[in-house]
Amino acid sequence: MPDARFKTIDPYHLWLGVPPELQPPTLYRLLGVEPFESNADVIDTAANRQIAYLHQIAAGPHRKEVQKLLNEIAAARRYLLNSKTKAAYDAKLEQETHPVLDDLPGLDAIDLAEISAFESSAETEASLLMASSPFAQQPVPHWSHKLLDQKLIIRVLSILALFLLGNIALCVLPPIFSSQPDWMSGIAVLDSFSTLPSDDYTTDVEDPDRVFECREGKLWLLQNESNAARQAKWTWNENKFTPGKTIGLDFYLCDDADHSQAVGLNVDNKVVRVFRDTQRNNGRLVVEVVGGPKRWTLDHKTNSGTATLTLTRGSESQKDAITWWLYDEKNRVGGTFKLGNLRNDAPFGIYTSIGGPQTTLGSWLDNLRHGELKRVPLIKN
Amino acid sequence: MASEDQTPAVGIDLGTTFSAIAFLDTSGRPETIPNAEGNVSTPSAVFFDKSSPIVGIEAIRAGEFEPDRLAYCAKRDMGELAYSKPIRDEFLPAEVVQALVLKKLKTDAEHKLGPFTKAVVTVPAFFNEPCRKATQDAGRLAGLEVIDIINEPTAAAVTYGFNKGFLTESGESHQLERILVFDLGGGTFDVTIMEIDGPNYTAIATGGDVYLGGYDWDSRLAAYLAEKYLHELGSDVGKNNAEMQSLLRTANEAKHALSVRDEMMVFYQHDGKQLRLSLSREKFEELTDDLVDRTILTVRMVLAEANMKWSDLTRVLLVGGSTRMPMIEKALQGESGMQLDRSVSPDEAVAHGAALYAGLLLGTSPAARYGMSVINVNSHDLGVLAIERSTKRHRKQVMIPRNSGLPATQTVRFKTHSDNQSSVRVDIIEGGDDSGQNAIKIGKLVITDLPPNLPKDTPVDVEFHYEQNGRLIVKAKLPTADRNASLELDRAAGLTEEAMAEWQQRIDQGLADPENVDLKELERILDNEDDDLGLAPDK
Q1: What pTM does this model have?
Q2: CB contact B523 to A (< 8 Å)
Q3: A377 and B91 in contact by Cβ < 8 A?
Q4: Is the dihedral of CA B506, B510, B513, B517 positive or negative?
């Protein structure tokens, strides 16, 4: 299984300098030495160097990821410092480096299913890295060597395809937090709103250009021409909010936004939204299920309005139960509620509410997210 | 020395898998207090039963049947936003789980000592500041006044010194002892080099791993057993939480057996099918050799940091239950070429040292009379996130390098980076690499309202003063602009006061299963939902 924690940061790349196209890394690359390095002192020194670096960052926000790499490096070191296991590994690597081209599948066979197979490559990696461990005593199957090369091709093609199909991979703006909270990993950015979401969404807004504007990868809320508040639901056409999944929205509600400005998530036409309660809570962010009986306040007087709202759906047996979190850089609040009669593959999207001409400008939606939450921040109320 | 009416000197070893509590008796000797079940150590496990939490061995047993209600090894999540597993659909702070363990230790000890609140609690030397703060908070939630926290290897070294008679009137060590404390516990690993010079205990260097301990050996063995079960009996027991809990217990028992025997039979039963497996110590060692390597590599690193060789040491002291594994002794003996010292009880040494330290702080132990002192080092760099002029990228400016003797003070001159700068911000970080990546931000100091027309390169003097108890005082001043600011961080991060109060209330109320009234009510209302955007009154 792919490690969801590794989706938002790439520790192999960031910390060990292994670029994505060379992942999963060989044991040599993991240690940062030349392939087939034969000098045991070089290998030992390299392992010590990597471990010393990882210890430097071991107290940081990604300490669990650091542990995973420490284990892998210790295993790689042991494997390559033993002449028998090294010889066996070198032989396998040799075979992998020079694959028989005829064995590769035709390029037309590559489809999304194979791309997702590529995403599962952590299993293959583990079997290579941990081959000294009895958990992986079975020899690495012949097909896996070919798969590595095949995966490389798929990765290159998929990146190229994504680039050509609208620059999706490259237009994702940095997250709103200076560093993305660790718990958020796993819910990838689905849409960063570099364009008005009408192509990918179904919307009940008749003329979105007049009330929304896209710039800097954000969907800015504009004023409505009439004095009435105007709400809009947008439904993402591709993905569904299925049991066990999480959806999220990064947003900013400007300091003097009143309660007529709200942003939120639209789940099967039910709305969970956030607004600034200028009437009773000194402008603090408030979460409510529209039509629900209760509201929750993010308890911080000076929160900047930059925050993330996530909704996590219960497992199959509790699929109507929703755990929600509202999180800014300093505070979080969360809880559970139930949305009745949710479809298994519930459509979801974004929700906005804007005021009339007197509305203050400056609030925006940043990213719509979708995936599996690694874990969530602590509950505060 | 403690007398009947004195505040008892209490020390608590709050471990990942087991915890222990000790006090100083009337003669000033540390003594472990058995729990209500009669054991000297208590599993750091909490089972959230319907009416109230259960802590200890009963929690472990109940957890085999309802693993979703079991919180175990919460120490590994200290300093994180929450304990890694939801309990009753709620993510609890790890502090709350640890508080319940502490509360059980306190309650059981009070049967012997009477009511008390003051205690010293131990933490791994490699814990960062947020983890230390979380430990203090857990103590508060348990009704304890944590008079100080002390590093586990330091506590063990104090116990060693006490046992050797260094803390008596005539028994000061005649020659300097330089000890490497190798502390492999249930969930964490620490290496600390300490000098003992009479009653003075000085840490020289420390390193470790807060995710490496006996639990990892258990997990490896449990995974192996699950694989064997799948291979021989066709069921994937590893996917079932309850079975995995049971496998972990079987693995733990096998680990203990293989620490004294070369071979054993493992029996594991599930769904009417029994796995019968002959397991050798050799096999177990093969399964976990990289974990052993990690400990040795860390030891090497700490020696290098201290600029020492094995021959500079007088002793290697083993602490922590996991050092009972022969593979540890073999590897460490091979690496050091020294006889290893097992003279302190691996399960009690840390709690005893904490009690001795509590006695020192309270002035009730012999240690206080003989001028005992304990000097620690910081395990992670403390610094400022600055901007490198040539690259415009962040750089970590280390203010107090790791392994500095505490208290430590350092001043560094920075410069403003642009003309007419209106404010200066000092981001205070712990750990991280040279670029400041993966550091923990523990505070921020801002000087605002700078005078107009301030030129670029105006000097900014930043001073850090870091105390033994974790208090960090940061001062910044612009000497040419007559502006300054200071900040005192009494351990950064952790739960807010409001959150502490809320959790205190919930703990006091018994943490029973929540009622589902609100959910039903919500469901009823949502079924009749309209999209009225008007503001409904708060409930």
Answers
A1: 0.66
A2: yes
A3: yes
A4: negative
